[in-house]
Design a protein that fits this description.
With about 180 residues, this protein is an all-alpha fold. About 75% of the residues lie in helices and about 0% in strands. It has helices at about 5-20, 25-35, 40-50, 55-80, 110-125, 125-145, 150-185. Helix 3 runs antiparallel to helix 4, helix 4 packs antiparallel against helix 5 and helix 4 (about 55-80) crosses helix 7. The chain is globular. The protein starts with a helix and ends with a helix. The relative contact order is 0.17.
């Protein structure tokens, strides 16, 4: 079993390695992706496109938005309040993007939680839409480490929150009617 000390060391090494990636592609694509994901604009845009297709696309959009909303609520209003973790130290990030980081707790990544929540909830309704959403979701997770906003474990925890939220979005509605009926009877 890995110790907490070993996990922290691995987190620091991986943060340093991801942040050091300096190809023209990463300098162009990752900041643009992060900008589009601010305030979940990317996922709302994806939901609008899906909803415009009607039928299955509309159901997929509703599931995706519900997964994203629940993930954001859990990550930001619950998890970040329970565990206050500092952002990665600036000396690990060898580029100027490190200056523009949030002040909130680093754990878990809310961006990743929202992305995973949207993607997983959408995939349960329309797998092809989930597969398409998975590409920017995965790149966003990498961007959060590359920019110095999060450690890899923050991103992994955000992904776990998103996956749990998507699962709940698809499970709770099935459970509610019997629970309500039992209460009413």
């Amino acid at each position: 079993m890995i110790s907490l000390t070993e996990l922290r060391r691995a987190d620091l090494r991986l943060t340093r390695r991801v942040a050091a990636c300096d190809s023209p592609w990463t300098r162009r694509v990752l900041p643009a992706l992060e900008s589009s994901a601010q305030r979940t604009k990317l996922w709302w845009g994806a939901a609008a496109v899906l909803a415009a297709t009607g039928g299955r696309g509309r159901r997929t959009a509703v599931a995706g938005v519900a997964g994203m909303a629940l993930a954001e609520l859990l990550a930001s209003s619950v998890c970040k309040q329970l565990y206050d973790r500092c952002r990665p130290p600036e000396h690990l990030i060898p580029h100027p993007d490190v200056a523009d980081r949030p002040d909130s707790s680093s754990f878990p990544s809310g961006h990743t939680a929202a992305a995973a929540g949207f993607t997983a909830a959408a995939a349960a309704v329309w797998p092809a839409a989930g597969a398409v959403s998975a590409v920017p979701a995965a790149l966003l997770a990498v961007e959060r480490v590359h920019s110095g906003a999060h450690y890899p474990t923050d991103v992994a925890a955000g992904a776990a929150v998103g996956l749990a939220s998507a699962w709940l979005v698809h499970r709770i509605p099935r459970r509610l009617p019997p629970l309500l009926l039992r209460r009413l009877l």
